[in-house]
Amino acid sequence: MSKVSVPLLLVTALLAGCAGAPKTREAPVAAPQVQVPAPVASAGPAPDDNLNAVAWTQTAVEHDLIYREVYRVAGEKLPGAMKSPKWDALAKEDRQQPLKGLKPAVILDIDETVLDNSPYQARLVRDGASYNEATWAAWCREKAAKPMPGALEFTRLAARHGVTVFYLSNRAQDLNAATLENLREAGFPVAGEEVFLGLGTVVDGCEQNGSEKGCRRQLVGRKYRVLMQFGDQLGDFVDVLANTPDGRRAAVAPYLDWVGDRWFVLPNPTYGSWEPALFNNAWSEPAESRRRAKIEALRY
Known about the structure:
Elements: H1 6-20, H2 51-59, H3 61-83, E1 103-109, E2 115-116, H4 118-127, H5 133-142, E3 146-147, H6 151-160, E4 164-168, H7 176-186, E5 196-197, H8 214-221, E6 224-231, H9 245-252, E7 263-265, H10 287-296
Parallel strand pairs: 1-4, 1-6, 4-5, 6-7
Antiparallel strand pairs: 2-3
């Protein structure tokens, strides 16, 4: 038996011991902490109740088709209305002069009936603003409103047939000159300044009721047989004594058969007296209260 040195035996024993011992794991290295940024709120425009209405007015083909349809139908009915001596489009409270011997006329509202003011409404949406007299007057003085589809064709047709075209508007009197210029530049027949009857027109013997147009319709009716009326508001046809949903229905109820025949109603979802009728005409109420009232008026 050969001799093995003591140091060699010790090394061998140590190696054998290491081989049989359980292996230990190193502690895992912790992953670095990554800061996840909080979601950033969109910087887009604030919600606006009028956005869809203005977008529809400016971009929907259906909007233009409705206007063209209304004015085309009116043009087709005009010759028959002229031939019928008893044909009259004034409400009974506005007709105070016998029809015999009166010249023919038609009455049209201006804003959203013959002139398109949707760019002004679009600016309000863009700016998150509401209507006010200063910005409205500034827009009117631009004289940039374009004709509504079909309006030029109808009014020119009426003028060619010897029918006087009257424009009744609730624009303030200091906008008369700019409005007439806008109408003329757009190509509408304007026989003279007397065919434009703006807010504040004095009518002898008639007591003005706010911004209602009854006195001005009576003024036209003193010399003319009104064949047709056009507008985007109920007040363009008849005075509304109670501006509530029920009051508005009552005002138009006697004349439903005239709609599409003597009265031609055009759509305007962007503004009008229909809106305050839903919150008791209380414009002084906060916007949240007015909006809540409109939501409550919805049917589910």
